[in-house]
Amino acid sequence: MWFVYHLSHKAILAVPYGLGAPFATGLIGGGPVVIIWGWVLVSLFTMTLALSIGEICAKYPTSAGAYYWCYRLASVEYRVLASWINGWLTMVGVWTISLSVTFGTGQLLVAGVSIFHPEWVATAWQTYLIFLAVLFTSTAIGVFLNDLLPTIDIISAFWTLLGTIVILICLSAKAAVGRHSAAFALGHFDPSPSGWTPGWSFFIGLLPLAQYRISSQDLMLNFEAYTYAAIGMIASMAEEVHNPTQQLPRAITWSIPIGFLTGIFFLLPVLFTLPDIATLLAVPGGQPLGVMFEMIMGSKGGGFGIWLIIFGIGMFCAISICCAASRSTWAFARDKAIPMYGFFSRVQIVRGVPVPLNGYMLSTIIQLLLGLIYLGSTAAFNAFVGVGVMCLGASYAMPVLISLLNGREAMMDSPYPLGRWGFFINAVAVLWVIFEMVLFSMPAVIPVTKSSMNYASVVFVGFGLFSAIWYLINGKSSYRGPPVPDDSASSSEDNGEPEKST
């Protein structure tokens, strides 16, 4: 049943977490107008991207995802190179997005502690240790409870649904700091905290990586676009899904409207009961979520209860996205595109269930090492986190653009066709991703300093250079693109399933 796999994908989207953890970004960008109408705008444009990749995924369902689609859609002379570029965009994207979720959940734990100990501000090394606890817990569950992941994802979906309802009722009923009018909740706009002009501040509040505004301990992730960053990662579970040509595209596309409604039910009660914005932006550590809930509920216990719902969603999201990252890592290694591909493409049996353990470990180690950057430079670390959205957006847009340039000929027989609206939907999706990437390269506040500069574009180009150099050193001779069903070699790899080893 496709709805089950939509529920699994909901664990990756984790709308209340995606909107709650980086709440300060929207407040800096302009406040309620940015938060509520930005959510509408981003959901609308992301829907075109979801429809576009859903159409492609229906015809080419595989855990390799976008880089496999590029290989199948591009011309013969360019398909290997296009697949290589897209594969590295996907890998960097899933590793850094996983990092952002696990690290962001750790930051959320710090915010929960601040409810009862407001004077405590976590140091960089304390934050890193908390991040490690979240990362190792998520990885351990994915490895040792792999057979229970579908059940965990369904529990996550219902936790999110029921939690959103609880938040809606509790915040609306309590409103300890007062209620706002609809004019404020839907129309208040103050771009002064960002320093940008009003129009640009609106978009800055939606999309780019929020930089450090108060101290070196500040960490605020992306806002609305961050929530939808991983819409295509459900394809990484293709070999583990029954009837993927129908279930995968439905899960991808339906996640947007259902996620949008979930976001509306979460955001409206917050905006109608929002405490003083200046007070929230002055919270030590830059994470106002715990203090905000405490103020609205009028007690530490009430604020902690609401915070616990968001933290639970964050943990479920971390488990799911680390799992998806491991599958993407395994798929790229299977296709001989990363160093030591023979080792990382192996599948081990853990508690009687096949698990890409080596791919899991590689994904986890990369997150662990990138997290160390936070100890030296929070601005540099933030760039690694933010570049994930850019990489994934570019990787999703590439096969859509290739399909457009080919006149959408390959999509005429897709099991999930867009019909006559296909050209328009694909074009809007590609233009939206390009616009996203520009915004994600911009600093959140001006004037710009070394600590407030957005280095995401530098990191993006750096990863691109690394992948190009590795292609010249090894990839050009060993990488032949992902295996396709009509390859002459008849093996388990043709179906996207490597030989399993114990």
Plain-language structure description:
This protein is an all-alpha fold. It has one domain (2-482): Amino acid/polyamine transporter I, CATH 1.20.1740. The chain is built from 20 helices and two strands. The protein has helices spanning 2-13, 15-20, 23-29, 32-59, 66-73, 79-116, 124-144, 149-174, 182-187, 198-206, 224-227, 244-272, 277-281, 289-297, 300-334, 341-344, 357-376, 378-405, 422-440, 456-478, and strands spanning 348-350, 353-355. The chain has a two-stranded antiparallel ribbon. The chain is globular and about 60 Å long. Mean pLDDT is 80; it is low at 1-12, 208-225 and 487-502.
The number of distinct β-strands equals 2
CATH superfamily: Amino acid/polyamine transporter I
CATH class: Mainly Alpha
List the uncertain runs: 1-12, 208-225, 487-502
List the helices and strands and how they pair.
Blueprint: H1 2-13, H2 15-20, H3 23-29, H4 32-59, H5 66-73, H6 79-116, H7 124-144, H8 149-174, H9 182-187, H10 198-206, H11 224-227, H12 244-272, H13 277-281, H14 289-297, H15 300-334, H16 341-344, E1 348-350, E2 353-355, H17 357-376, H18 378-405, H19 422-440, H20 456-478
Antiparallel strand pairs: 1-2
Helix pairs in contact: 1-8, 1-12, 1-15, 3-10, 4-10, 4-12, 4-18, 4-19, 5-6, 5-18, 6-7, 6-14, 6-15, 6-17, 6-18, 6-20, 7-15, 7-17, 8-12, 8-15, 14-15, 15-17, 17-18, 18-19, 18-20
